[in-house]
Amino acid sequence: MRLSRRNNRETFALDLTTCSDIIFTLLIFYILTQSFVVQVPVDLPKLESEVQNISSTAQRIEITENGEVSWNNETLPTDWKPAFAKKLASMPPESSFVIVAHHRAPAGVAIELLDRLRLAGIGSVAFGGITEKTEKAEP
Question: Which CATH number fits the domain that encloses residue 120?
């Protein structure tokens, strides 16, 4: 009869010393190869009120919720591109424009207006938005 039992299981040991060396090496490599960009603060103009007149001489182009375009409160036809090009041809390049879009207006219309203004040589273009009007709940 045997009095002592031998444990036949092999013990598993994991040496983490090399793992920590690799982690510190990778950390040093990351720090040395990181390119740091100096951030320059930009002062943007603040709105004094919710409805601010951007410029009295700026041409106002408005995009409604369903994509209709109006120029200085004059609604352009459904196929607005020829009428827009005709009106834009008479504008000097130093003119300024404000594109005011409804919050649910198609983004493609605003982008196309911006592209057409840039191609015409207009450099001063600003964007604005029409806020969603909250409706009063009826009791």
Answer: 3.30.420
